[in-house]
Amino acid sequence: MNKVVVMTDTSSAISQKIANSYGVAVIPWHVIMDGKDYLDTEIDMTRLYARLREKKNLPITSGYSVEECLQYFYRLSKEGSDVLYIAMTSAMSTMGYNAAMQAKKIAQENLPQTAIEVIDSRTVGPAQLCLAIAAAKAASQGRSLKEVVELVNHMIPRMNELETSDTLFYLDKGGRIFEAKSWAEAQSQNSFRTIVEIDAISGGAAKPLARAKTKRQIMKKVVDLTKERVGGGNLFAAIVHTNVPEQAEQLKEMVLPRFQCDEFYICEALAVTAIHNGEGLIEFGFYSSG
């Protein structure tokens, strides 16, 4: 039986250290800035944040190609591995998921000894990261591809991804605002913070949940919503942020006293996430492991 390698993309914000620790392969998205095409991992984030603050001449994002994804499948197959790719929610962007499905079809014709599965995570960021880690752990325990796929599919409905940002301007500008459109318009007239959900509960798209005047108030609402959803179970959680590490730590400090956390990760988002959310994003992904 082939070993299983878990693969995800940079919308998960999984750090290189965590990816290396669990043996997770990570395919990068693309950023088009000033007419040049960059990998998500190649962007100078200081320069990018300065551009985003101007709210003019904003960079755009693009998915990886079928050929790029195919090369990952080929490389991993040479290591004697079956592949499970956990993709960003297709409800927010079909580019990655569709490219992976096309690459899978080509690979199956040329790599008959390698099994490849592609799963739509129905989420992004830290929740996607949590899925990848859980899958990689199961793979490291010698579970088959079928068993790991079943695990992930069982977890997806239980995953939660709540995010709060300083503004919905960038999400709206990037065409990923969905039901939160009215809130983005209201923010141009009145300053307030929001919680938007992106997970299986919201259909994989952005759904507005709550709003408050201050960042502290909105983070308290995040913690309260978490308590409502997990009850007394143990928590497996991750935070992803865009250039606000102190606020990420603040949310972690608000969470820890109220829950028994099995594992807790904090990662900084890469360029594509920053482009669609701006500075000040805090994403909280979690599920109850109890």
Describe this structure in words.
This protein is of the alpha/beta class and 290 residues long. It contains 11 helices and 13 strands. The protein has helices spanning 16-22, 45-54, 66-78, 95-110, 125-140, 145-155, 169-173, 181-187, 215-230, 245-255, 271-277, and strands at residues 3-9, 25-27, 30-33, 36-39, 60-62, 81-87, 116-120, 160-164, 193-197, 207-212, 235-241, 261-268, 282-288. Helix 3 packs across helix 4 (95-110) and helix 5 packs antiparallel against helix 6. The longest helix is centred in the middle third of the chain and has 16 residues, at 95-110. The radius of gyration is 18 Å and the shape is globular. It starts with a strand and ends with a strand. 48% of the residues are buried. The model has no long low-confidence stretch (mean pLDDT 91).
| Rg over CA atoms | 18 Å
Helix/strand class:
alpha/beta
Oligomer type: single chain
**Order of neighbouring strands in the sheet with most strands:** 10-9-8-13-11-12
